[in-house]
Amino acid sequence: MVDKDQLDILKKLEDLTAKINQLFSEKGRNVFSRYPLLFALLIVFGVTMVTQGIKDMLNEIPIFQDSPFIMLLFGMLILIITGTLYKKLEK
To answer: Half-sphere exposure of residue 39, counting CA atoms within 13 Å on the CB side?
Structure first.
């Protein structure tokens, strides 16, 4: 059986985390709205670095170097599998 004092502590902890999340979201919005160009450039830079890194890693695999068609098939297979998985999880 759960003690009433425990429930109060859990409720207080939930309230505290909700207040902390609200405080950080308000602070975060101010920073993003003050420097939108900086954050846009950082996001573009990050995405470019990740895609270039993946591209370079794939170029290190001999089978992909020799046959880009196999790389295309692997990519399509991964997209089909993830799309099917997404549809199943959505239900």
So the answer is: 9
